[in-house]
Each structure stands twice: as C-alpha cells, then as structure tokens.
Amino acid sequence: MNTKQKHTRLIKAEAKRLGFMSCGISKAEFLEEEAPRLEKWLSEERHGEMRYMENHFDKRLDPTKLVPDSKSVISLLLNYYPEKFQREDSYKISKYAYGRDYHFIIKDKLKSLLSFLQDEIGEIHGRAFVDSAPVLDKAWAAKSGLGWIGKNSNLLTKQVGSFYFIAELIVDLELEYDTPVTDHCGSCTACIDACPTNAIYEPYRVDGSKCISYFTIELKDELPGSYRDKFEDWMFGCDICQDVCPWNRFSKSHNEPLFDPHPKLLENDKKDWEEITRETFNEIFRKSAVKRTKYEGLKRNIRFLKD
C-alpha cells in the first residue's frame, strides 16, 4: 500500500468513527463545469436578495484560492433525518433545524478530524467548511462520488436519499481521489411537480428567489402576497422536494443526540405556534438554526400562513 492509499484509508476510517455517514475525496482544482452555470444563475438574478452569493466568485470555484497549496477536498455527509416528526396539525419546520445548530456540531467534528490527521501524519494545513464560506458543497460532494445532483439541485444517494449535511475539509495533502457516480433521477419529476412555488423552473435548476426556504429564512422584508396560499404551512425552511423524492424512502434516522428536537417542537399545534412568546421561542430554539430568522421573523412567517 502506498502512502496516498494509507492516508486515504486513515481519513475515511476516522470520519466514520466520528459519526459521518460517508466520506469522499477529490482533487482540489478549478470547477470548470460549475463556472458558467454559476455565472448564468447569478446574471439571471436567481439568488434574489442573497447578495453574498455574488461575492468571491473565483474562490467559490477554486479551492486553492481559499486554502493556499491545497491538494485535496475531503467531502463528508452527516445524517440529520429524525426519528420522530412534528404533529400533522402544526406549522412546519425543516427537518435539518429540529435539533442543535449543525454548524457547531460539524465544525467540532471537522476540527477533530484535522487534529487526528496532524497527529497521525504530521504537518498538514487545512480548513474546515460548513456553509460558512464560498464553497460549492454539493459540487464537491458529487465530484468525490458521494452522490449525484438531483433535479431539485440537492445531492442524492441511492442508499440514503438526501437528508444529510455536507461539509468539507480542504487540505494540502495529496490523496487517492474518488470518481463521480451516475445520475439516477431518470424520468422522475416528483420534485418539480410538487414544488408549490415553481422554484424548480427546469430539471436541475432552482430559482432561489422563489424557494419557500428563501422566503422564510433569507428574505428580511414582508413576504409577497402573491405567494400567500403557496407555503403549505412551512414556517421555517421547506422539505417538500425532499419529502417526495423516491430515494428518500431509504432515509434512516440519525444517531446524533444533539440533533434531537426540544419536546415542544414536536408537541406544538398551530395555535401554540401562533401564541408563541419570546421566552418560549428562546427555550425551544436556544441553540437552533431557527435562531437565524429570529423571533420576529418566525412570527412574521406564522402571520403570513395564518392570514
């Protein structure tokens, strides 16, 4: 076994031990296929008010500009599919936000992985990324063979669907690289047909400015009246295109206690949410990604659904 093989096996074994669902590795290089796609998406204003998407165009496409001398992008998946769900007569929260904010949990795991590699291999420089920098997570995960980009623009895997977080460790270490897998969406259009706001405007293309997740999380202004009957009770995020995807029949519940929801999140009905106080909001979402929309934002979303 050569050194690259040995290091690659070491990384994948440790990633598994840390609880990651899977780990794939690709060469750190310019993403040629993604460049024109991203440029077109931005020029067509598909990002709405997410102006940060316009920043660091070069860095989004070239990891060597983010991490000097980087050689490899280690992509990792962490399952968040819950065991229990909200009650039927409730306003809905995207499943990724049921428990504690994933940024902190995954960042800690990535730091542990990098520290382990430095102890085992020697002087390695690298950076961990969890949604927090201009990195095209899904493109790198697909490039490293962890799945394919589906028609809803999510990463899909035959074994487990799409309910998982994607993170990266970009390092200055040469490793063995994985190869992409084939697309298995076939003629299925379930996600396109189910999207109530027509955000999936053509297969594999999503207009971010029409997505329910964008409206309920990113948009800071009042919600547009023309979409009033289209949110299907989603008050934070949206899982519709994932819920209808046939590959998510294979989702298995996670085993990360920190992703378990506060009991009230599962127990609350619509009336409870409509009457939620700031104190209860802080109690339920103390360390949750829902904090991003703040109490006022969640109340705005609930009012919009109720009216």
UniProtKB/TrEMBL annotation:
Record: residues binding cob(II)alamin: 60, 131, 152, 155, 166, 213, 238-239
Signal peptide interval: none
Cellular compartments annotated: Cytoplasm
Cellular component aspect of the GO annotation: cytoplasm
Pfam families: Fer4_16 (PF13484), QueG_DUF1730 (PF08331)
Positions that bind tRNA: 220
Subunit structure as annotated in this protein's UniProt entry: Monomer.
Role of this protein: Catalyzes the conversion of epoxyqueuosine (oQ) to queuosine (Q), which is a hypermodified base found in the wobble positions of tRNA(Asp), tRNA(Asn), tRNA(His) and tRNA(Tyr).
Pathway terms, separated by semicolons: tRNA modification; tRNA-queuosine biosynthesis
Entry keyword annotation includes Iron-sulfur: yes
Entry protein name: Epoxyqueuosine reductase
Residue sites binding [4Fe-4S] cluster 2 per the record: 195, 211, 238, 241
Essential cofactor(s): [4Fe-4S] cluster; cob(II)alamin
One MF annotation (Gene Ontology) recorded for this entry: metal ion binding
Keywords carried by this UniProt record: 4Fe-4S, Cobalamin, Cobalt, Cytoplasm, Iron, Iron-sulfur, Metal-binding, Oxidoreductase, Queuosine biosynthesis, tRNA processing
Domain 4Fe-4S ferredoxin-type stretches: 173-205
Catalytically driven reaction(s): epoxyqueuosine(34) in tRNA + AH2 = queuosine(34) in tRNA + A + H2O
Enzyme Commission number: 1.17.99.6
The family this protein is said to belong to: Belongs to the QueG family.
PANTHER family: EPOXYQUEUOSINE REDUCTASE
